[in-house]
Amino acid sequence: MTATRIDGKAFALTVREKVAAHVAKLKAEDGLIPGLAVVLVGEDPASEVYVRNKGKQTAEVGMNSFEHKLPAETEEAALLDLIAKLNADPAVHGILVQLPLPKHMNADAVINAIAPEKDADGFHISSVGLLATGQKAMVPCTPLGCLMMLREHHGDLSGLNAVVLGRSNIVGKPMAQLLLRDNCTVTIAHSRTRDLPAVCAGADILVAAVGRPEMVKADWVKPGATVIDVGINRIPAPEKGEGKMRLVGDVDYAAVVEVAGAITPVPGGVGPMTIACLLANTLTAACRAAG
Ligand code: GUN
Fold this sequence. Notes:
Blueprint: E1 4-5, H1 8-30, E2 35-41, H2 45-60, E3 64-70, H3 76-88, E4 94-97, H4 107-111, H5 125-132, H6 141-154, E5 161-165, H7 172-181, E6 185-189, H8 196-201, E7 205-208, E8 226-229, E9 233-236, E10 245-248, H9 253-256, E11 262-263, H10 270-290
Parallel strand pairs: 1-11, 2-3, 2-4, 5-6, 5-7, 7-8, 8-11
Antiparallel strand pairs: 9-10
Helix pairs in contact: 1-10, 2-10, 6-7, 6-10
EC number: 1.5.1.5, 3.5.4.9
GO molecular function, one term: methylenetetrahydrofolate dehydrogenase (NADP+) activity
Function: Catalyzes the oxidation of 5,10-methylenetetrahydrofolate to 5,10-methenyltetrahydrofolate and then the hydrolysis of 5,10-methenyltetrahydrofolate to 10-formyltetrahydrofolate.
């Protein structure tokens, strides 16, 4: 049986519509316009695409978008100065510093310089601690988008076996925390996990976030499982012409779609939900700032 395709693009549109409606209400009733500042250091092409999309969608839901592009050789102290200005700016409710940062910068120090109440990414150490202890927290956007799709598809997640493949601070670890909060039995698997295929095959919910093109094969997936593919990998596509590339996830979609119960595609799955959740986080921060 072929798996249900979980349409992240369509779901993200409904989330953005809800955010836009709330923003319009805030504007009309309180004269408040939520603002998101995005800081990009350097010229990484993938980061430039993400930042452009974030800016465009922020404006589309009626929020203010403030973009700050700094050259790759910017000193960390200058970036910290900019963050201090954004922290103090009442028109800015959410701040995001695009990662990765150039190697000469200490990413932890930069992220922890963001005022926790403006931490739209949920990467600040205080947001991480709040989430880990089950308190109200800014939640990282990619895992939040995954959770929303899982809840929409499954309803109650209680008691399900969830395997998170990947242990990054941005996706794997917060994803595991969120699934635990929803009463799943959670395993974090990674490159050193013994017999990875067998561990993954025990999952009712499998979230793949390792950055390895098409790593998860059909025999790694329990029949009927829900598979969330966080990977965005560019691989050569000679069939499209010389030098052409195509996007694939961490899951071998063509094979796994025949085994899984539901699966997110790449592109059109997790990606659009990430930006929608960033906008939702910014709106939450603005509402909290307004009291
Ligand atoms: N780089 C890749 N994903 C992300 C993200 O979600 N937030 C930030 N700030 N940088 C990223």
